[in-house]
Inverse folding.
């Protein structure tokens, strides 16, 4: 962490970058002379390495460090057991010596242990004294979500104020400290917060997020779906607060690294710097860290002198290291990331008493520790004497008890003499004695008034290439509603964003749903008069807090594997966004409180996920919806056995197809004489002509059977199967009728500004996507 060492290392990176640039240049010249000299993959690999080195150089430390910058750097760096990366920290302080931002977060859910109190206060003071602003993300919304303090947000905020008072009494300099309450920002700035979270989810693989499970303290192979959400939300906090430095504990390292990796994917140049502080051991043997659930595992800021004495006297305090526990054999991956060590430095002794002396007592500036009649000015001297037997366990513990009580006494005095602090503490203690119970009932968004039974159709995930089959399937599902029902078409725009549909372009996603709705209006104006189109983002933003609490509660009930099973995604290819989208789907269902969910077979997995939740969560105030499954209308122009190989745009009819597209595609459509098992023209005629109330007229010479008009598919299919109707007569007739059907959509688009704009947005997106694909 020495600035001189950092500069030396960076000069080495510059040499590597120069050499790599020369290597890429020569490789390109060789390919120009002989295309077979190197493969595209080989060149791409070397170019990626050059980009990596250049990115590292972008954060290069300055050549000459002014003394005041070195002093600031040393002060901030002393806070962390690890810094990723030292050069970036030095560069940050050089460029923003008095305006860099650090952050940490805490949930105001109860007690504060001594590491969070004294250790944190001293670290914050170092950072602010060096010129930084320290932001505390007060996670009161998460405490609300966890039903702390009876699920009362105002009470939770009072607990937050109590913790702030503790820090004041501990000696935290509040001049450059800001407390940002998550409940205020998550609700008032819901679009910015949640779209950031979804963006991280759509760009991060599920396998990568699972590695962060340490922050939940759970085993990777026993994850709930909600545990995928927590790291994504913590990542979001970093970008939402515009933090330059993540100043959290080593136990949060993996999720902070996830934030840096997201920067690579999202093209964000300045990555958050990770400055991870030491994690104190629990006071009992084998405790890698303190636990709020075990009151004897740590000293808490409100502990009495007697509490301190009892806990320290009972604390584990070895003088020699015990044999390490068995480790996994070589080649065997440990599945339990949640039980990994919380410490980065080698410490075989793992003595919590020495740990307290080092990181609590000596965290205070100019501190002297007295034990066994000897005043110590450094931790190294204490440890040396203790291990040599010059300082006994009893004397070490006695000195530690006195030192801790000396640090805690100002806090005790503050709450005894300061009127505001006294009142806050009295209120919190009174609520604790009341044993507050959270309000009963289901937390959910309410999107319908319940005046009529609801028939819901969940529109397919946004697609820039909406097929005629998808459009007709939605039309049929909407038509399946009974006369007494309210019909809802739910468009999951944020869910589509989480699924990375349309490359994550939210404008194009919105245009896709506009295209779907306007096409339905063109085909079935009367039907659409009774359909209520609901856009997911608009609805959830009416009460974002209740909506996202319901999403997280659903995730808590469901094992991750159950949610993944509903998605039918190939194992290993999953992204975290898929899990979020599935949980949002269930939350959408709760918001709508439908009597019926109408879907095709591909939607049955998610429909079952919705219905199963009623039993999982023991919901009594809502009735389980009935699932009505209709077969999807397949407008694919080839039978399944001919679909192998790369997809072809002529294999299907799309809603944006012009007359010439329809004509060309229908000429090439599979239409084998007498084959009614796989006959796309018959399917298209049934769905787009006959079921729309139109007729199909076959025009042919008298010797070939003469003209004939069909009103029902059964007769048409029968004639084709018997050979009475030849493909050469069927295809032209269906082509004409189909094009007339689709002309209704084209005419509607011409006369509707919203539809016209949506079509333009989608076409521009498809052109760009094709161009980008060609480049690759």
């Amino acid at each position: 962490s020495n600035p001189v060492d950092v500069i030396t290392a960076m000069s080495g990176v510059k040499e590597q970058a120069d050499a790599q640039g020369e290597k890429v240049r020569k490789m390109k010249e060789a390919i120009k002379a002989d295309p077979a000299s190197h493969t595209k993959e080989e060149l791409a690999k070397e170019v990626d390495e050059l980009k990596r080195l250049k990115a590292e150089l972008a954060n290069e430390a300055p050549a000459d460090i002014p003394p005041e910058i070195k002093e600031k750097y040393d002060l901030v760096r002393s806070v962390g057991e690890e810094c990723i990366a030292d050069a970036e920290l030095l560069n940050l302080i050089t460029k923003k010596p008095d305006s860099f931002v650090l952050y940490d977060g805490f949930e105001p859910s109860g007690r504060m242990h001594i590491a969070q109190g004294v250790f944190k206060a001293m670290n914050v003071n170092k950072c602010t004294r060096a010129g930084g602003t320290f932001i505390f993300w007060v996670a009161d919304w998460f405490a609300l979500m966890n039903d702390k303090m009876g699920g009362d947000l105002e009470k939770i905020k009072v607990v937050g104020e109590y913790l702030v008072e503790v820090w004041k009494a501990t000696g935290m300099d509040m001049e450059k400290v800001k407390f940002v309450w998550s409940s205020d920002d998550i609700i008032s700035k819901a679009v910015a917060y949640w779209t950031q979270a979804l963006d991280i989810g759509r760009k991060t693989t599920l396998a990568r997020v699972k590695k962060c499970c340490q922050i939940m303290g759970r085993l990777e192979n026993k994850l709930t779906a909600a545990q995928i959400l927590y790291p994504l939300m913590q990542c979001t906090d970093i970008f939402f607060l515009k933090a330059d430095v993540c100043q959290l504990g080593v136990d949060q390292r993996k999720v902070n690294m996830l934030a840096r990796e997201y920067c690579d994917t999202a093209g964000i140049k300045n990555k958050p710097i990770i400055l991870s502080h030491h994690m104190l051991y629990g006071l009992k043997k084998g405790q890698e860290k303190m636990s709020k659930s075990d009151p004897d595992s740590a000293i808490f800021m409100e502990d009495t002198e007697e509490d301190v004495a009892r806990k320290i006297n009972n604390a584990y305090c070895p003088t020699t290291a015990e044999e390490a526990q068995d480790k996994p054999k070589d080649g065997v991956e440990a599945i339990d990331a949640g039980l990994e060590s919380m410490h980065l430095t080698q410490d075989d002794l793992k003595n919590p008493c020495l740990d307290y002396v080092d990181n609590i007592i000596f965290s205070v500036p100019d501190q002297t520790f007295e034990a066994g009649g000897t005043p110590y000015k450094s931790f190294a001297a204490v440890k040396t004497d203790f291990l040599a037997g010059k300082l006994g366990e009893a004397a070490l513990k006695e000195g530690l008890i006195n030192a801790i009580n000396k640090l805690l006494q100002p806090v005790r005095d503050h709450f005894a003499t300061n009127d505001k602090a006294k009142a806050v503490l009295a209120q919190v203690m009174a609520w604790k004695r009341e044993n507050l119970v959270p309000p009963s009932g289901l937390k959910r968004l309410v999107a319908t008034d319940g005046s009529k039974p609801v028939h819901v159709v969940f529109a397919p995930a946004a697609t820039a290439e909406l097929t005629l089959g998808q459009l007709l399937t939605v039309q049929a599902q909407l038509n399946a509603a009974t006369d007494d029902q309210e019909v809802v078409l739910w468009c999951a725009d944020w869910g589509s964003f989480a699924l990375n549909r349309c490359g994550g372009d939210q404008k194009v996603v919105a245009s896709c749903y506009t295209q779907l709705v306007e096409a339905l209006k063109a085909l079935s104006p009367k039907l659409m008069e009774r359909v209520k189109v609901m856009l997911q983002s608009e609805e959830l933003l009416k009460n974002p807090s209740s909506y996202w609490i319901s999403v997280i509660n659903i995730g808590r009930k469901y094992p991750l594997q159950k949610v993944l099973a509903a998605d039918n995604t190939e194992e290993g290819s999953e992204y975290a966004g898929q899990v979020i989208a599935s949980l949002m789907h269930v939350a959408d269902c709760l918001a709508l409180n439908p009597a019926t969910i109408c879907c095709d077979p591909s939607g049955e997995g998610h429909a079952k996920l919705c219905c199963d939740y009623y039993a999982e969560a023991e919901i009594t105030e809502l009735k389980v919806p009935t699932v009505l499954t209709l077969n999807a209308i397949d407008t694919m122009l080839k039978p399944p056995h001919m679909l192998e190989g790369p997809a072809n745009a002529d294999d299907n009819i799309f809603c944006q197809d012009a007359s010439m597209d329809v004509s060309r595609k229908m000429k090439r459509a599979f239409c084998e004489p007498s084959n009614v098992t796989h006959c796309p023209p018959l399917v298209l005629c049934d769905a787009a002509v006959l079921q729309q109330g139109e007729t199909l007229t076959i025009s042919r010479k008298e010797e070939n059977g003469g003209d004939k008009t069909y009103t029902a598919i059964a007769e048409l299919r029968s004639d084709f199967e018997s050979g009475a109707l030849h493909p050469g007569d069927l295809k032209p007739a269906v082509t004409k009728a189909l094009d007339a059907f689709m002309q209704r959509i084209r005419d509607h688009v011409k006369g509707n500004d919203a539809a016209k704009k949506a079509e333009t947005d989608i076409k521009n997106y498809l052109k760009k996507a094709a161009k980008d694909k060609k480049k690759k």
Notes: Residues 324-339 have pLDDT under 50 and may be disordered. The two ends are 41 Å apart (CA to CA). The CA atoms of residues 461 and 496 lie 5 Å apart. The chain is about 50% helix and 10% strand.
